[in-house]
C-alpha cells in the first residue's frame, strides 16, 4: 500500500494541503499541477495513509483538499466572509467562474468607473489595507491563499479562477432561501 | 471589361484601394483621399464599379470589399444560404449537360467549380461558426447579450445543418446522373465531397453540443449570481440565519480553516517509513478506530461506540476545556467506561499529534495507580 508512495511527493502534498489550501488541476503552477496528477493517480492509497492520522483527503472534480469539521462559529464566519468576496467579484464580472482570467489592473480600472463596486470593496470588513489597491490585493490574496484562484503572472498581476471554485459554487448553490 | 484592364486599374490605384479597405468600417470623405488620386481617376474607378461615390463620401464596391475579406480570411459573416442558389445553378447545368451532349464541355467544368465552391463554403462557415461561438462565450460579459448571441449562433447552426442535409440529398439524387457523364475529374470530386461530408458531420455534432452546453451554463450562472446577490442582501439585513438554511448547510462546508498543526518528536526520516505507517495503523486500531470486516467482529455496544471515535473531534472539544487532558478524557462522554489502558493510548496519541498546541505541566494526576502528566490546551491558540 504505502510502498508505492513517493516520500518527497507525499511530504510536499501534506505541507501544501495542511495549510487549508485547495490543490487544483488547472493551477498555473507546474509543480502544483504535477502534484495534483500524483494525488489523483494515488488517491486511494493516499486517502488511507492520511486517515491513519485522522485527516480526510477529499478529491473533487479537478481539485483536492483536507476536510475538516472545525467549530461551527468559525465555519459560519468563513461562509459569511466568502459571500462578501463572491458578491464583489460577481459585480466585477458575472462570468467570474472556473477558468476566468483577470488582471488586478482591470479591476482597479473598473473600480474607478463603477462607484458601486468601489463601495462594495470598501465595505468588506475582513480585508486590510488603506488604499483601494491594498484592499484589492488583500482580497485577492485571501482567495489565493485558500487556493480558489492562482497567480499566472506576478509582474502583470494576472490571475485565473481554479477548479476548487466549484466547491464554493456547489456549496452556495445548495443553500435554500425561504420565501 | 477584360481582366488585363481590371488588373491595370487595380494596380494603378492600389494605395487608394488599400486606404478604403482599411477604413471600410467608417465613412470616408472624398477630401481624405485627394492625395491618392485625381478626380478623373475617381471617375474611371466609378465607371469600372470599383468604388461608389455619393455626395462627398467614397466607399469600395461591396464586391471588392467582400473579395478582399474572403481572400485574407477576415470575413466573419456566416453565409450559408448562398448554397441553395448554387445547388439550383448546378441542377440547371446538369439538365443542360444531360439533354445537350455538345454542351457538356462547358457545363461539366461549371458543375465542378460550383461543387468545389459549396465544399469550401461549408468548411469555411463551420470554422466561422466555431470561432464565433467561442468568442461570444468568452468575451461577452453581460448575460442577456451573451444568451442572445448564443441563441443566434444556435439558429445559424441549425440552418447550417439543414443546408448540409439539402446538399446531401442533392448529391444522392444526382450522383447517378453525374457519374453517367464518365468524367473522371467530376467523379473524383464527388468521392472527395462525400468524404468531406462525413468530416463535417463529425465536427457539427460536438459544436452543437458545445453551444447547447454554453447556453445552459450561462443560464445556470445567471441564476447563481442572482442567488449570491440575494444572500448578500440577506446578510446585510441580518436575515441570513432566519431566511435560509445556512446553519444547517454549514455542516457541508468542510474547509480546513486554520492550518493543521502536527507536532512530533519523532525523526521525520522515521515518519516516512512504512514501519511508521504500520505503527500508526496499530495505534489507530487499539484506539478503537476499527477497520475490521463487520462479519469478523462481535458487535458489542463497546465495539459500536469505538467505530465512531474521532481523535480530532476530541481534540477540538478539549481545546475549549480548562481541565487537564487526562481529566477531560475521563469525563468525555464517548470515552466513559473505557479501560485506563485504552484512555492512556488516546492520551499519548493526542499529545503526539497536537504537541504544539498543548502545554505539559510539572503536576501529575494519579488514576488507578497510573501517573499522568497534567497537560492543558495552550491559551495562545484559543
Please describe what this structure looks like.
- The complex is a heterodimer of chains A (179) and B (382).
- By secondary structure, chain A is α+β, with helices and mostly antiparallel strands.
- Chain A has two domains: 2-67, Arc Repressor Mutant, subunit A, CATH 1.10.10; 72-174, Orthogonal Bundle (Arc Repressor Mutant, subunit A).
- Chain A is 54% helix and 13% strand.
- Chain A has eight helices and six strands, in the order αβααββαβαααββα.
- Chain A has a three-stranded antiparallel sheet. A three-stranded antiparallel sheet of chain A has the order 4-6-5.
- In chain A, a hairpin with a 3-residue loop joins β2 and β3.
- In chain A, α5 crosses α6 (115-123).
- Chain A is globular and about 55 Å long.
- In chain A, 32% of the residues are buried.
- Chain B is mainly α and 382 residues long.
- Chain B contains 16 helices and five strands.
- Chain B has helices at residues 3-12, 14-22, 39-47, 62-72, 82-99, 104-139, 143-179, 184-236, 240-243, 246-249, 268-271, 274-286, 301-307, 311-319, 325-331, 340-354, and strands at residues 28-29, 51-54, 57-60, 358-367, 370-377.
- Chain B has a three-stranded antiparallel sheet with strand order 1-3-2. A two-stranded antiparallel ribbon of chain B has the order 4-5.
- Chain B is elongated.
- At the A-B interface, α1, β3, α4 and α8 of A face α8, α10, α12 and α14 of B.
